[in-house]
Task: structure prediction
Amino acid sequence: MISRRDFLKRAGAAATLAAACTPGRTSWAGGTASRPNILWIYSDDHAENAVSAYGSRLAEVAPTPNIDRIAHEGVLFRNSFVTNSICGPCRAVVLTGLHSHLNGFRQNGDRFDGDQQTFPKLLREAGYQTALFGKWHLGTEPTGFDAWEVLPGQGHYYNPEFITPSGRGPVEGYVTDITTDKALNWLEQGRDAEKPFMLMVQHKAPHREWEPGPDHLTLFDDVKIPEPDNLFDDYSGRGTAAREQDMTIGETMRLGPDLKVWDESEKETPVWNRTYGRMNDEQRAAWDAAYDPKNAAFHEAGLDGDDLVRWKYQRYLKDYLRCIRSIDDNVGRLLDYLEATGLDKNTVVFYSSDQSFYLGEHGWFDKRFIYEESLRTPLVARWPGVIAPGSQVEELAQNLDCAQTFLDIAGVSQPDTMQGRSLLPLMRGERPDDWRESIYYHYYEGEGRVHNVYKHYGVRTDRYKLVYFYTLDEWEFYDLKKDPNEMQSVYDEPAYASQIETLKTELARLRAHYRVPEDDA
Result:
């Protein structure tokens, strides 16, 4: 293992050489001799409302100090959105800078075409070393990476298997810790210190079934998590889609796999074997010590009706937030490593999630809808000397912009075929006059699939949102200034007729601009 001094000496000299000699390189964004490294930390289903830097009902009871550290030392995007709120499609959009209909990955279960252009391939061509560790969820093996180790499918929380270029096998431990271990090991021993790097650290957590790590099994036991005002929403202000979804805490959430209250008949079932059944004796003993007393109290209470929903909400949120605490701990490990080695001075660090998640709002969990809680996604970034600490950006950003942002940071030409726009000017504090005033969204899975969320597309501006559930032929319209929680569609109110027509025109423009096929609706 090289010493810190030799490591920094080699890295600095090599970066200077690479900056001068890399083919295809355009002007670099930072204005110094060496090109910046890029660290992309990505979680799965981490709600914006569960990042304390954003401020929410959860900020005081469940802070995220290390993710907040990125925001406080850099920039927080206040209006960051996705194009299609579901795991695999979000990842495909980040890689390609293309909407789902063009990158070919519209819904989970599709297979990503690894032959297509992606930003990691372009960065490699420009002299970057690229690596990926953790969740992939795109059905085919990663391409464009010098090193990769990924979870099969959704992966497992305890003792997960990893797929590598040389094969597949289990690793003992907790998945969030293991993913970070692999990334740190690559930074320390696996990478070429003479090249700038693009490292993607992609966590499984806090995806369902929300299994907390061994360090946090009793975290929040003595805390009451605040409820959202619309936990008991009756959906009277919306249409068929909101009423017929299958993602409520009250009806959809399962006591066994979701809430860790197993019935004897559920043992040795596939879902039991992929969760509790994967634990070794030591892990299971710690789990039982934490959960058995809580489960006994639940059985003794004999809850039903609203009281049962409230209990489910508390158990769900506490487990979900425990998973996030492990993510935050591991974000801290990465930040500490960068600072200990001096890499922090020339590394752009991002934290984001594939999409947000319902934390009891509307009585729901999961994502998929264009409604705010799943349309939004957290996005924070730090770049010492370039991003002013404590910055905030109000402009509309999307995961569609990630690929071009990474290329712009690296000084690599952005292909005209990509459909987003580099966020780098916003990160620097610039406010381009021609920045977008609306975003396009399209969800493809539809009724009959997991959670029964109807297909829909729509447009959102800084104030209004227009949604078309096209298999239902139903429209919804929201004034987000007056109704930020989207409790009442005002599509049929005459007072909004003009705004609705304007947004219909804008929606048609966006579909043409993004080359959405006419039969995609």
Q: What stands out?
A: Confidence is low (pLDDT under 50) at residues 1-33. The chain has three domains: 36-211+321-432, 244-315, 441-513. The radius of gyration is 23 Å.
